[in-house]
Amino acid sequence: MFTIQKIKLFVTTECNMACGYCMIKNSHDYMDFETAKVALEKYIFWTPSVWREKFVYFFGWEPFLNFSLIKEIVNYIQKRKKDYSFEIRLVICSNFTLISKKTLDWILKNNIFLSISIGWIESVHNQHRIFKEKTTKNAFEITTNNIKNLQNLGYKREQIWVWLVIRNKNISDFFYYFKFIVEQIELNHINIEFIIEKEAWRQQDFIIFKKEYKFILKYLLNSIKTWNFIFLNNLNWTIIEKLNKNLWKFSSPVSYLTEIHPSGDVLFSWFFTHLSDEQRKNVIIENIKTWNNFKNFENIWNKKFIDEYFSDMQKLKDFNSWEFYPFLKSYISNFDDKIAEFILEKSKKYLNFKKYIDTIFHIYF
Ligand code: SF4
């Protein structure tokens, strides 16, 4: 069965910031409503849903630069609601700096989920999160105040996924930073985002990382014991996979990675924005407005393809620390594996652990 469970609409390729570690190539394209509408019809409404919910992500660079389009799309989805049986979760991925009081009200009213990236504690965040315009504005304060204002309006903290930007330079503060996000900014859904930097990871960075990550997992376990749950994206997926090995039976991974760019080109990684026009032609699944090639969804996701194009990506001169990535991934998955087993074992006996697992399933399905 061919299905698409999640699409990412890149409503603009422009950002109001110019962060030093930004991994996507800036340009100045804006999606139009027709492109978004075809994408929704073709991938969301015309393909069946394997689970209760499908997901529409509004991505950019900074999606709120094209807020008028987002509002138009959300209205369109709401009008079409009566025609389909599954739910649609709407998620905006943003730096959350271009937000007015009216925008906060709109987010609340339309039950929008948010995915917000925070680049470490205030001083470090501001060092890297630089506005394009010349200004003395405090980026960290703007983002976190907007989150607080939204929470004060009654927005549930579970609706925000925070992307925690991890840098080797500040790795000894990893646990402190994690706790800060939970206790000071009051967020409990966390996704660790490793930044691929110019500076390579050193041996001692890995040792510190392992120690800090263990503290985080201990802290997370304690959150289950006290019913004040904290969720970690990578650990969630380890638990889900352990419980349901057939999860992907009905869909290919590409059905979760479908990206529609303003031109209408459909890809499955924004890394491909770094490829030359010639190379890029080979990784486009189809153009939403001009041709149909559903077969490419299956064909394109194969080992040879991934090896070839991701190894090209690793040669990009701006990102010299690619080699660290598999190590961190393997450390994390080893730890997660043990913790997931522990949580599953406890869930057979204790209600709080069982509730924790049920909530994880509810986050994604
Ligand atoms: S806010 Fe995000 S998209 Fe914009 S420049 Fe920074 S890292 Fe890149």
Structure characterization notes:
With 365 residues, the protein is α/β, with parallel strands linked by helices. It has a single domain (6-364), classed as TIM Barrel (Alpha-Beta Barrel), CATH 3.20.20.70. Helices cover 44% and strands 13% of the residues. The protein contains 13 helices and 10 strands. The protein has helices at 33-45, 67-80, 101-109, 122-128, 139-152, 174-183, 203-225, 233-243, 277-281, 295-300, 303-314, 324-347, 351-364; strands at 6-10, 53-59, 87-94, 113-118, 160-166, 189-194, 231-232, 258-260, 265-267, 286-287. A 10-stranded mixed sheet has the order 7-6-5-4-3-2-1-8-9-10. α1 (33-45) links the parallel β1 and β2. α6 (174-183) runs parallel beside α7 (203-225), α8 (233-243) crosses α12 (324-347) and α12 crosses α13. It is globular, with a radius of gyration of 20 Å. The mean pLDDT is 87. Bound molecules: iron/sulfur cluster. Iron/sulfur cluster binds at residues 15, 17-19, 22, 24, 61-62, 95.
What key phrases describe this protein's structure?
single chain; about 375 residues; alpha/beta; TIM Barrel; 13 helices; 10 strands; binds iron/sulfur cluster
